[in-house]
Design brief:
By secondary structure, the chain is mainly α. Helix content is 69%, strand content 4%.
Length: 450
């Protein structure tokens, strides 16, 4: 444990010292603030959907498009390297005897099995955080800065990582203690009970995270008064969103990405816009984005996706159950693991579950992508801002490959591609050419919304 602690501080100090050196190479990738409407995207008797779509895609410079493609395609490999790195961490826990020693330490601290499990999980989280830190620093800090998507210094970034660890330490030990209690009580049927628990847990997370967790990482305050707030509230009222709690949060301290969401239920519903969306885009874009987000709420996507993902998790737990028992029979004695109810075997179970979800990536992405496409269609009809939605899709192309191949989109995309979204916007505009924004005498580049 002392050696791990020393390595942890060496890694942190090394990367903290390199922060300023790397920050100097960060490039600006965003499209200019404000709405742009290419001439080909103006309504008229000769309006052509494909020409209008291509005109929007051509707003990206070749350098911007190459950078976006490289970032997104690199993420494909990062998924594989993340899995292999996780396997290596699991091997360190299991093959070195570290996991067994953590279990024995927990047993010396309490005679109660549920408390032993909670103590073990807390130790496992801390040690796992340290072992995973090099990959986290590369993928979540340096790589994001390299592509101009991050704004946070190393100290702030690392502070957020520690906050995330603290949240995990408050919640995860007790959840996994319940899981292991179910394993000890119901035996081979544990995965059925665990799946039901996952459904309840996801619902509670949806209610509690916006209220108690997200404010730990960002400052939330009521959305500034003005036309933007009036437009968001009007959309909410028109679509029966039962809240007047509209807030903005300071995501710009961490990222250059634009985002928004409608989260919560049973009295916790909240509409949130990040300050990048507010400061970098136009009112038509904001209306389009909020129409999409409200579509998720009105179409009941949170509950539907919870059901779908719970079913997928159930298959994952079943896969773990079958593979886990086989692995214990083959290597359990050598690794000094005492059975499926032994918390020291947790790294093995997590490694197997990680493999399942990597293999299930096309299915998971397709489930989410279908819901996103439905929200896109809802948002276009609710906000009636096709050019705003097309422009927002182009802004997202700063980190999403704009035009993938069909198989590539099925496997790796959890949202419709930028091309699909712009094309859908232009299809809508073709059928609704009396659109106010599209026909307005706007300059090629409007100012940012205030």
């Amino acid at each position: 444990m002392n050696a791990i602690a020393r390595a942890f501080f060496v890694v942190v100090l090394m990367f903290a010292g390199l922060t300023n050196l790397h920050a100097e190479s960060t490039s600006v990738r965003d499209l200019p603030p404000g709405l742009q409407i290419p001439d080909a995207a103006r309504p008229g008797p000769n309006f052509d959907v494909d020409r209008a779509t291509d005109a929007y895609l051509n707003l990206l410079t070749p350098a911007q498009r190459a950078s976006s493609d490289a970032y997104f395609e690199g993420g494909y490999w990062l998924q594989l390297w993340g899995l292999l790195y996780g396997f290596a961490v699991a091997a360190i826990f299991l093959c070195s005897g570290l996991s067994r020693r953590l279990r024995d330490f927990a047993r010396r601290r309490s005679a109660r099995p549920w408390l032993q499990t909670a103590i073990y999980v807390a130790l496992w989280l801390v040690v796992g955080f340290v072992l995973a830190l090099p990959l986290s620093i590369y993928s979540d800090f340096f790589r994001e800065h390299r592509y101009g998507l991050a704004t946070q210094g190393f100290g702030g970034w690392f502070g957020d990582q520690l906050k995330g660890l603290a949240v995990s330490l408050v919640v995860a030990p007790w959840i996994l203690a319940l899981l292991y209690a179910a394993v000890r009580r119901v035996g081979a049927r544990w995965w059925i009970w665990a799946s039901g628990g996952a459904f309840v847990l996801i619902l509670f997370a949806m209610m509690l995270a916006p209220v108690f967790v997200e404010p730990l990482f960002n400052d939330y305050k009521p959305l500034r008064e003005g036309a933007m707030r009036d437009a968001v509230l009007s959309l909410a009222r028109a679509n029966q969103i039962p809240t007047d709690n509209v807030v903005e949060f300071d995501a710009s301290r961490q990222t250059t990405r634009i985002s928004a969401n409608v989260a919560g239920f049973l009295g916790t519903t909240r509409v949130a816009l990040n300050d990048n969306l507010i400061n970098k885009t136009s009112l038509p874009e904001i209306r389009a984005v909020m129409g999409h987000e409200m579509g998720h709420y009105v179409l009941n996507h949170p509950l539907r996706l919870t059901v779908y993902m719970t079913l997928l998790i159930a298959f994952g737990f079943w896969f773990v159950h079958r593979t886990f028992d086989w692995a214990l029979a083959r290597w359990g004695v050598r690794l000094e693991l005492e059975g499926r109810g032994d918390p020291a075997a947790l790294p093995l179970g997590v490694a197997i579950l990680s493999l399942f979800f990597l293999l299930a990536t096309p299915l998971t992405n397709s489930i989410v992508r279908q819901a996103e496409a439905e929200a896109d269609a809802f948002g276009l009809n609710a906000a009636r801002e096709p050019n705003g939605f097309a422009m927002a899709a182009m802004r997202l192309s700063a980190y999403r490959k704009i035009r993938p191949g069909p198989l590539e989109e099925i496997i790796f995309y959890d949202h419709p591609s930028g091309y699909q979204r712009v094309h859908a916007s232009m299809l809508w505009l073709n059928e609704n050419q009396r659109n106010a924004t599209a026909n307005a005498p706007l300059p090629p580049l409007a100012g940012a919304a205030k």
